[in-house]
Amino acid sequence: MALTFSLQAECGVTRARAGIMTLPHYNVKTPVFMPVGTQGTMKGLLPEQLEDLDCEIILGNTYHLGNRPGTDVLKKVGGLHKFMAWNRALLTDSGGFQMVSLLKLAEITEEGVKFKSPYDGSEVMLTPEKSIEIQNCIGADIIMQLDDVVQTTFQDNERIKEATERTSRWLDRCLKAHSRPLEQSIFPIVQGLLNSQLRRQSAEDHMRKNVNGFAIGGLSGGEAKDEFWPMVSLSTEVLDTKRPRYLMGVGVAVDLVVCVALGVDMFDCVFPTRTARFGCALVKTGQLNLKQKQYETDLRPIDKDCSCSTCKNYTRAYIHCIVSVETVACHLISVHNIAFQQYVI
């Protein structure tokens, strides 16, 4: 099988659990945080450094990889694993999130999503079939269905209903188009935004499909925690306990802890590396903005209890000195921030 999931332990009070996902390229311990390497690279880090940080699975972006390097190159080289020299597991999103992030460029119909490419201005139609074709070329262990994505705080109930139901229809097209079911697992994406009835309907629809795991989408888009967490709880309540559950786009420490307790097994987010590019290091009390003058003479590591190479070898003062002028500062903070995410999870 392309994926097997074995539970190793379960909490007696919450829905938290620990497990192992056996994938074609690696056995991944859950719960797990997946750093995001949009175009087959983690900004500021090499694949071997991610291995040193004990990252077992990372994420790539189908839309961007489909544009550059493109499927022809990926086919020739034998997939993204070989292209980026990564020997562990990969997950790719479907390109659906670009409906939100590039909405000014998008026209959404039942056929798919029409984009004007930000690379060359050409018109691109991303259909469920095309998304799966690209992901089959990329060769990730876990791939996502194309879903109809709406901004979480959107208020038009008819549009939310349309997107939720279309996502279920597109799932059927994705499963039919999938050419590598023994090597790659498609995860359906639970939609419904903050509408509990639609979210339950979406989860129940997906539960009836022959799939190896599930994704929870349509959240972490600006809504309040007291709206976000109940929707996660509702989703995990409906979804099968014997298959892994992936909460998309979530990476803030408090959300990781709460959502693990709610029964989530997998997370991804650009947060740790994007935060690093702004000179901010993640710590248990929040963030340290190492650009601030208060760190100019601070000879402590970012976190005295952290065992990452940055904290072992460099001080806050050193990083403060180079943070605005040297790209190596982003590299050093990224190493720490990913180590911090691994610690939290």
Automatic annotation (TrEMBL):
Highest taxon of source: Eukaryota
GO cellular component assignments: cytosol
Binding site for substrate: 93-97, 147, 191, 218
Residues that, per the record, bind Zn(2+): 306, 308, 311, 336
EC number: 2.4.2.64
Catalytic activity: guanosine(34) in tRNA + queuine = queuosine(34) in tRNA + guanine
Entry's Gene Ontology BP terms: tRNA modification
Compartmental location: Cytoplasm
tRNA-guanine(15) transglycosylase-like domain segment(s): 15-342
Active-site residues, as the UniProt record annotates them: 93 (proton acceptor), 268 (nucleophile)
Keywords on record: Cytoplasm, Glycosyltransferase, Metal-binding, Transferase, tRNA processing, Zinc
Any coiled-coil regions, as ranges: none
Pfam families the record matches: TGT
Role description: Catalytic subunit of the queuine tRNA-ribosyltransferase (TGT) that catalyzes the base-exchange of a guanine (G) residue with queuine (Q) at position 34 (anticodon wobble position) in tRNAs with GU(N) anticodons (tRNA-Asp, -Asn, -His and -Tyr), resulting in the hypermodified nucleoside queuosine (7-(((4,5-cis-dihydroxy-2-cyclopenten-1-yl)amino)methyl)-7-deazaguanosine). Catalysis occurs through a double-displacement mechanism. The nucleophile active site attacks the C1' of nucleotide 34 to detach the guanine base from the RNA, forming a covalent enzyme-RNA intermediate.
Self-association state and partner proteins as the record states: Heterodimer of a catalytic subunit and an accessory subunit.
Family (UniProt): Belongs to the queuine tRNA-ribosyltransferase family.
Protein name: Queuine tRNA-ribosyltransferase catalytic subunit 1
Organism: Parnassius apollo (Apollo butterfly)
Origin organism lineage: Eukaryota, Metazoa, Ecdysozoa, Arthropoda, Hexapoda
